[in-house]
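Same chain as my last thread, 438 residues:
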Amino acid sequence: MEPVNIGLLGLGTVGGGTVTVLTRNAAEIARRAGRGIRIAHAAARQYDPERISGLDSIGRIGDDAFAVVDDPDVAIVVELIGGYSPARELVLRAIANGKHVVTANKALIALHGNEIFAAAQEQGVVVAFEAAVAGGIPIIKALREGLAANHIEWIAGIINGTGNFILTEMRDKGRDFADVLAEAQALGYAEADPTFDVEGIDAAHKLTILGSLAFGIPLQFERTFTEGISRIEAQDVAYAAELGYRIKHLGIARRTPDGIELRVHPTLIPHRRLIANVDGVMNAVLVKGDAVGPTLYYGAGAGALPTASAVVADIVDVVRALTTDPHNRVPHLAFQPTELADTPVLPMADVETAYYLRLTALDRPGVMARIAGILGEEGISIEAIKQKEPAAGETHVPLIMLTHRVREARMDRALTRIGELDAVAGHIMRIRMETLAG
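reply #2:
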């Protein structure tokens, strides 16, 4: 059988890794796919030929990406250039030309996936995006196929390696956020502009996709609550450890009777949980299904070869599906397109969780009672309190509290009132808590 011709857009880190994996494992991949896979046409504005193994196997390399998606010899377009534009235009053009698409572009899927999947459905082609979430971890396939029998209850994931590296270094070495961020940039884990990583935008793109796959709802990135880690201080990491917790930057998707929670934020989780012990740049996703219980997926969330592993797996899946009935393929978002639900995504004010609070209060009688009184008036129950001794000459002391679960709107009101007290100085640190119990 003739090899399948693919067109490759981008020869950067992931694109170069994809060339390497396809050529290095060509025989094994052909055995799995049922036929050979050949890169017939690639486009890249710039690339380093010294860093890409197997580059001479590509039929043609140019700098015009649209020429690749218009090439009549190309059956599958692999989009690895990233970003919103021209990726969106290229993918839609490829679909209009009747070509299948493989992409690692989480931003594209999170923001434009509904439009892209509708176009693909109309044209009878596949859009595969395993590499868009958690790099080499096959979490999309697990949700869409392996866990198809389950009513998914919740997902909690460490889905950005840069943020996880920073929090790990802060915990293990007591370092400040800014210091570790500078090292992450020097090591290439963080971009020169690290906003997408440290402020949670990258994780929110990925969580949007996971939430849609888990609960059968349209992609709704604009409704995903996003909070970064730039305000986390070394003392918070230390206090959390004293209380038996670790701080992780989690993406959490949960089904509730009122709607769907989609939220990315720093989270205290018990140190004994497996996911609390995922360190460095590694990723992990914990999924709770009603039949299977909790399942954990762990591995490299980025990098040339781990991400290329997911890209090539998608290519193999598409090659296998080339001759199948378009109406009987695995749905893009796990549920049949006509069965997506309009379940609401909850605003953060309606989400219920427990909290870690750190504030600086005047060390005098009655202050603690007043703070506890405000929390009580707002229906917030305190689980634990830790008060530090004042340093010599200091009049204010750090006060750390853990609360029971409460609706966020109540906590917002309580913190506003506490912050107005003359006895409370500076910013009140609030970090949400989850037990992630199976």
